[in-house]
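To: structure subgroup
Subject: Chain for Friday's discussion

All,

I'm putting the inputs and outputs inline so they're searchable in the archive.
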Amino acid sequence: MLVTTANDLPGLRITRTIGVVRGITVRSRNVVSDALGGLQSLVGGRVGAYVKLAEAAREEAYEHLLEQARAAGADAIIAMRYDANEIMPGITEVLCYGTAVKTEVG
């Protein structure tokens, strides 16, 4: 499955626009990551515990996006984006979305 943040796919022609597809996950921090993150934030710089949590959430949302696109019959996704919202303190929604399309060599 080709996925791009661009609005087109050079070398391919979009033959059909299927529509918006999305992947979503909701994650919460845990006591361990909060403790590690708190200690790292005292020192300053990159907070690895939270980076790892954010990367895992994005990967999960991305995998759900691919599943939805495949189920819709797409072979590519254009204009892919991520978004995140805090639902409540410590609980974050991560959304990955884009436009599912069918393509051919053009």
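Points worth raising on Friday:
The longest helix spans residues 48-71.
The beta strands are 2-3, 12-28, 76-88, 91-105.

D.
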